[in-house]
Task: inverse folding
């Protein structure tokens, strides 16, 4: 049985198509996923992301513990700011990609993927043992609601006095939204401006209703995981399990920049990753745009002159480009005359620079 | 609950067949239930005009944002017409699955077998949903 989020009744009332995702019963779409995708690109979308994990690390050495446990330099993060980072194993393989929010001098919140957070919580607790820091998985107590899109700030501003205008990208601050305490973060996974609101489970339903009502005049739609996936794909953002896994290092994924070798002290994975930083990987993550209309999908081989030179990790029809797009690992040095083997037929694709979509700022 | 018109026949693969009553040429599409399960259809590949198809053959595909499904021939015969509109405008499959979203017509070369009535198809889909 899939676990419901605190917003399950709302999803059912809205007639959502529900799906199991990482053991959670989640809305796949409410109506047309294309309409939801376009709403986020042009107006706003409202997402239930309560399946994500929230792990708190607190104490005088919380920052040092995270510096050791993760590849980033979290003790250098200013309170109120957030950072995209990763947890890797001793071999440098990616166990999860994370966003870490520094809530105070001695308080951090690590947001992990639904499929991974129980493991991440265990790993963090183990790695933090030598430090004066406490690791606590509070995922069960927190709901997460995201408002994403160019109208997100206007919509949220009708419900809070918090300084949204002054809130930078990858920053978060405690505030009150519709009379409920929330951590308001300017983060997301759609390629648009937007906010993520961490609230107590009991506040999730009334907050959802309040945002729905406030957003209606702006064209806000509830949006499911299907549109979330096509939005993040257009934005060239990796999905754990597709572009990232424990057999790949951050360098393999083209995300070596998140590994901070210049931070003080050792960290898990340093010895394995250090020699890799100047060596180009055998395959690199690239963007592909199909010339035809058939969609390259996860696991399909990428070919060059009939020989397999890579594999698609994610693919979908792109609303914004009007063509199918894909992320794929492709052998270094091969960039032309590429095709994807779509159920036996080799369909031409062009390699393009990522992201596929970048919003106008 | 999906719309399942009484006057059509159906297959377990969620196709509908129309026109069995009045002759030897039938029209085929996919059901509203299938269209809803797929989500927004973005690509339809149909059999070629003149192709000879046999019941159960995979003769095309319907692709949506999240998935791809094969179209199986619900009857045996020759494909005598394909709906180019649904190839050009795949969302017809979502918006009007039993009307403008029809897919192809087949001139039968034998009597259809194992088609489901609306009642039987309703029973089949109420179990899945």
Result:
């Amino acid at each position: 049985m899939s676990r419901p989020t605190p917003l399950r009744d709302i999803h059912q009332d809205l007639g959502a198509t529900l799906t199991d995702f990482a053991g959670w019963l989640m809305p796949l779409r409410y109506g047309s996923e294309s309409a939801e995708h376009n709403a986020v690109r042009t107006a706003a979308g409202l997402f239930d992301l309560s399946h994500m994990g929230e792990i708190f690390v607190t104490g005088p050495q919380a920052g040092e513990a995270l510096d050791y446990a993760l590849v980033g330099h979290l003790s250098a993060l200013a309170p109120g700011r957030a950072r995209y980072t990763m947890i890797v194993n001793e071999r440098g393989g990616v166990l999860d990609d994370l966003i870490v929010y520094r809530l105070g001098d001695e308080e951090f919140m690590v947001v992990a993927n639904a499929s991974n957070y129980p493991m991440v919580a265990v790993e963090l607790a183990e790695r933090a043992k030598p430090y004066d820091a406490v690791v606590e998985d509070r995922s069960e107590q927190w709901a997460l609601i995201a408002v994403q899109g160019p109208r997100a700030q206007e919509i949220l501003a009708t419900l809070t006095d918090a300084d949204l205008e002054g809130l930078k990208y990858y920053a978060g601050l405690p505030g009150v939204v519709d009379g409920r305490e929330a951590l308001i973060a300017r983060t997301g996974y759609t390629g648009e401006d937007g906010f993520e609101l961490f609230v107590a489970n009991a506040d999730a339903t009334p907050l959802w209703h309040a945002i729905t009502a406030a957003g209606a005049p702006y064209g806000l739609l509830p949006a499911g995981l299907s549109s979330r996936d096509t939005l993040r794909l257009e934005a060239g953002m990796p999905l754990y399990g597709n572009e990232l896994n424990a057999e790949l290092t951050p360098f393999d994924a083209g995300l070596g920049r998140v590994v901070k070798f210049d931070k003080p002290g050792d960290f898990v994975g340093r010895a394995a990753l250090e020699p890799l930083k100047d060596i180009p990987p055998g395959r690199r993550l690239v963007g592909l745009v199909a010339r035809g209309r058939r969609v390259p999908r996860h696991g399909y081989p990428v070919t060059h002159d009939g020989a397999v030179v890579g594999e698609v990790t994610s693919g979908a029809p792109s609303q914004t480009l009007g063509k199918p797009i894909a992320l794929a690992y492709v052998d270094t040095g091969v960039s032309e005359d590429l095709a994807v083997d779509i159920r036996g037929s080799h369909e031409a694709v062009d390699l393009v620079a990522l992201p596929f979509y970048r919003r106008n700022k | 609950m999906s719309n399942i018109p009484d006057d059509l026949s159906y297959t377990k693969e969620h196709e509908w067949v129309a026109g069995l009553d009045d002759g030897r040429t039938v029209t085929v599409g996919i059901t509203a239930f299938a269209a809803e399960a797929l989500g927004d259809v973005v690509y339809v590949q149909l059999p070629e005009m003149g192709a000879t198809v046999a019941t159960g053959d995979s003769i095309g595909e319907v692709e949506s944002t999240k998935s791809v499904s094969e179209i199986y021939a619900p009857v045996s015969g020759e494909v005598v017409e394909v709906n180019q509109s649904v190839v050009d405008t795949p969302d017809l499959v979502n918006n009007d699955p039993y009307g403008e979203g029809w897919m192809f017509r087949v001139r039968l070369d034998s009597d259809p077998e194992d088609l489901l009535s609306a009642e039987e198809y309703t029973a089949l889909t109420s179990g899945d949903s």
Summary: Chain A touches chain B at residues 17, 28-29, 32-34, 226, 229-230, 293-295, 297, 316-317, 343 (CB under 8 Å). The radius of gyration of chain A is 20 Å. Helices of chain A lie at 8-13, 33-42, 62-69, 117-127, 152-157, 201-215, 225-234, 270-273. The longest helix of chain A spans residues 201-215.
